[in-house]
Specification:
Keywords: DNA-binding, Transcription, Transcription regulation. By secondary structure, this protein is mainly alpha-helical. It folds into 2 domains: about 70 residues, Arc Repressor Mutant, subunit A (Orthogonal Bundle), CATH 1.10.10.10; about 130 residues, GntR ligand-binding domain-like (Four Helix Bundle (Hemerythrin (Met), subunit A), Up-down Bundle), CATH 1.20.120.530. The chain has 10 helices and 2 strands. A two-stranded antiparallel sheet has the order 1-2. Strand 1 and strand 2 form a beta hairpin. Helix 4 runs parallel beside helix 8 and helix 5 packs antiparallel against helix 10. The longest helix has 22 residues. The chain is elongated. The model has no long low-confidence stretch (mean pLDDT about 85).
Length: about 230
């Protein structure tokens, strides 16, 4: 009989746990278990991964602690993030004061706007125009949820125009948490006093003016209700 992976002749316990975590992570990132999906039960994972129950339990617990998975009593374990950094940052931003969250947004978005003004391409400008038009259209619908998503899409387009892969990856990691802060600032109803024009920001990027773009990006983040 062939020894199981968890047998004394197999690899050390912590090595098995790390390998199992990587296997679970690979299946999540590969789309086998997409965001919001329920992962297989513990016995099913034991059979599929060829490791012992305790190894599976520790690996799942590690990903729960990292914010990638969430155990729901009586229901199962679900994928709540595809990125461990996003999960950790999301938890941290949930507990942070609004002023701290605004400072984090400034750190990303002001520099992204400055770089976008220096590096934007014709394709970037077209994407910004589309995102800005969609944001305006979403505002006119009066639906806060639609507007928050459209606002986030515009900021993602600005970050993409900065052409800094690390900045884009980090921004994606905190994007969900920052979107929640925008929703909080906007509230359930779109009222005129909460509207923030982003046309000047896009115009500054189009003009290739990094200082003005940075100023425009920072200006709407000064106010706690800025989106």
């Amino acid at each position: 009989m062939t020894p199981s992976v968890d047998s004394p002749s197999g690899p050390p316990r912590q090595t098995r746990v790390r390998q199992t975590i990587e296997q679970l992570r690979a299946r999540i990132l590969g789309g086998e278990w997409p965001l919001g999906a329920k992962i297989p039960t513990e016995p099913q994972l034991v059979e599929a991964l060829g490791v012992g129950r305790n190894t599976v339990r520790e690996a799942v617990k590690a990903l729960v602690h990292a914010g990638v998975l969430e155990c729901r009593q009586g229901s199962g374990t679900y994928v709540v993030s595809t990125d461990e950094l996003a999960g950790a940052v999301g938890r941290r931003l949930t507990d942070a004061r609004m002023s701290e969250v605004v400072e984090v947004r400034r750190a990303f978005e002001v520099e992204a706007a400055r770089l976008a003004a220096l590096r934007r391409t014709p394709d970037d400008l077209a994407a910004l125009d589309r995102a800005l038009a969609a944001r305006e259209a979403a505002w006119r619908t009066g639906r806060a949820e639609a507007f928050v998503e459209a606002d986030a899409d515009l900021h993602v387009a600005i970050v993409a125009a900065a052409h800094n892969a690390m900045l884009a990856e980090l921004y994606a990691s905190v994007g969900g948490a920052l979107r929640d802060t925008v929703a909080h600032a906007i509230g359930p109803d779109l009222t005129p006093e909460r509207y923030v024009d982003h046309g000047r920001l896009v115009a500054a990027i189009r003009a290739g003016d990094p200082d003005r773009a940075a100023d425009e990006a920072g200006a709407f983040l000064e106010a706690p209700t800025g989106a």
